[in-house]
Amino acid sequence: MIGISPIHAQSAQVLAFWARYGAEEVQPILDVYNARLQSAGKPVQWQYTEIDSADLAIRLGAGQLPDTVAFDLVDGPQLTASGLLLDITDRFDALEYRDSVNRKILVLGSADGKVYAIPLLADVSVLVYNKALFRAAGLDPEHGLATWDDLRTDAHRLTENGVMGYELWCGSGGWLMFTTMPFAWANGGQLLSADGT
């Protein structure tokens, strides 16, 4: 989701944009956009800062707000209720594509009939696999995995010859959760047992 801070002056020449995405991914896009703004005679430039959820919470708690911030959708209700985001209802209503925005995510950035944050992007968690590798390992690619043990067994069979059959990119705790937990939840699994252990 993405929201706008209400405290910054509209005349600011350098606008801050914070998000969790790598600067190497975002800044080149902003550089192109900044060049377009400059060639159009608009004295505004966007500056990007990569920030994770923990740092975002600390900075917001200290009253350090960017002009625009992208955040996880689960943080939408708390940020919306905090009074830290600008009411952008009129701007949202003026968008030609407003009816195609994901309503289930939009509600997380809305309160009392007003919009404070809108979905920034959509993504999906899936497992993709190469059926040819399954067949070569003697596995049936049409047989779904019922348990974690099935996943582990098939993964071992698929890697016996040094070929990677399954790969879950988990470069951080957040990505581990993002990558594996939707798979677990979709299959009726839970992270913790009923007693919390």
What is the gist of this entry?
The chain has 197 residues and is an alpha/beta fold. Helix content is 37%, strand content 12%.
Label this structure with key terms.
two-stranded antiparallel sheet; 197 residues; elongated; D-Maltodextrin-Binding Protein, domain 2
Describe, in plain words, how this protein is organized in 3D.
The chain is α/β, with parallel strands linked by helices. It has two domains: 2-118, D-Maltodextrin-Binding Protein, domain 2 (3-Layer(aba) Sandwich), CATH 3.40.190; 131-186, no CATH class. It contains eight helices and seven strands. The chain has helices at residues 23-39, 53-61, 76-82, 89-93, 103-106, 131-136, 148-158, 173-186, and strands spanning 2-4, 14-19, 45-50, 68-70, 110-111, 114-115, 117-118. The strands form two sheets. A five-stranded mixed sheet has the order 3-2-4-1-7. It has a two-stranded antiparallel ribbon with strand order 5-6. The longest helix has 17 residues, at 23-39. It is elongated and about 65 Å long. It starts with a strand and ends in an 11-residue tail after the last helix.
